[in-house]
Automatic annotation (TrEMBL):
Organism: Paenibacillus odorifer
GO biological processes: lipid A biosynthetic process
Lineage: Bacteria, Bacillati, Bacillota, Bacilli, Bacillales
Protein's UniProt name: Uncharacterized protein
Keyword terms, alphabetized: Hydrolase, Metal-binding
Gene3D superfamilies: 3.60.21.10
PROSITE patterns, per the entry: TAT
One GO molecular-function entry: UDP-2,3-diacylglucosamine hydrolase activity
SUPFAM superfamilies assigned: Metallo-dependent phosphatases (SSF56300)
GO terms under cellular component: membrane
InterPro entries linked to this entry: Calcineurin-like_PHP, Metallo-depent_PP-like, Metallophosphoesterase_sf, TAT_signal
Pfam families named among the record's database cross-references: Metallophos (PF00149)
């Protein structure tokens, strides 16, 4: 049996330690300086059996969780605006958390949103961060930038005689969400898309006449380790944390985007920021 001297053992141990430290250092640099600003454009096809024929191949840009604040970079906002307009969406939907904490950054967020236009309009709902003291500022900023903020209400999109309903509720977790009010007077047989910040409330909505729920909030976990998954997901954002879900025994589908910004920790790992481009099919 081969043996190694104490000196050789210490040398190999030092090499392994340096290698691990180097890997950790590189991962730290990547997760802090690179991935949080490496935007992924994710194209998703969603079939809605009740979608009217006139809205077949209707394109929606869905983004969420901008969390504009101290960790935001102006060039990242510029890229986001360019990418949204480049895909020529029919409709733009934002599902909450425009600001991280401070209202001091509202002008930067408004500057971004003011660049975004789609033929069928721009619609938004508030998230839990928006409801913590910046509600009026965020609502005013989004409105000034051309977004219609849906507070427990809906709008109707029309093409010929076909109609598609877009409903939105106040933040279900810390706001004053009223799903009944949002759906009031929508025909039971109509195709309806719901904007709601926290995805896991879909379990409360699955028996209602809603076809698709668009959500954010979870950030996809923000840090996802191979073979482990997300290290942390926030309350009401863990069951449907990222991607498309079909709820059992329901017509309701949920799409949760990983969001644009970061919160708590200024890092992302194996969980790039996401701009979602949804094409609807009947």
């Amino acid at each position: 049996m081969n043996t190694i001297s104490r000196r050789q053992f210490l040398q190999k141990s030092a090499q392994v330690t340096l290698g691990l430290l180097g890997t950790a250092g590189a991962s730290g640099i990547y997760s802090h300086w690179i991935e949080p600003y490496w935007l992924e454009i994710k194209y998703v096809d969603i079939t809605l059996p009740r979608l009217p024929p006139a809205f077949d191949r209707f394109r929606i840009v869905h983004f969420s969780d901008l969390h504009q604040g101290v960790y935001s970079k102006p060039q990242a906002l510029t890229e986001l605006a360019q990418q949204i307009q480049h895909v020529n969406p029919d409709l733009i939907c934002f599902t909450g958390d425009l600001l991280d904490h401070s209202a001091d950054y509202i002008s930067e967020a408004v500057a971004l949103c003011s660049q975004l236009r789609a033929p069928f309009g721009q619609y938004a709902v508030l998230g839990n961060h928006d409801a913590f003291g910046t509600r009026k500022v965020v609502t005013k900023g989004l409105t000034q930038s051309g977004f219609h903020v849906l507070h427990n209400e809906h709008i109707v999109l029309t093409q010929g005689t076909d109609k598609l309903y877009i409903a939105g509720i106040d933040d279900p977790w810390v706001g004053k969400a009223d799903i009944a009010q949002a759906l009031l007077h929508i025909p039971e047989e109509a195709c309806t898309i719901l904007l709601a910040h926290e995805p896991d409330f879909a379990d409360d909505f699955c028996k209602l006449p809603i076809d698709l729920q668009l959500s954010g909030h979870s950030h996809g976990g923000q840090v996802r380790l191979p073979f482990v998954g997300a290290l942390y997901t926030p309350p009401h954002g863990s069951k449907y944390s990222s991607g498309l879900y079909q709820l059992p025994n329901s017509q309701l589908q949920v799409y949760t985007t990983r969001g644009i910004g970061v919160t708590r920790m200024p890092v992302r790992f194996n969980c790039r920021p996401e701009l979602t481009v949804i094409t609807l099919h009947s």
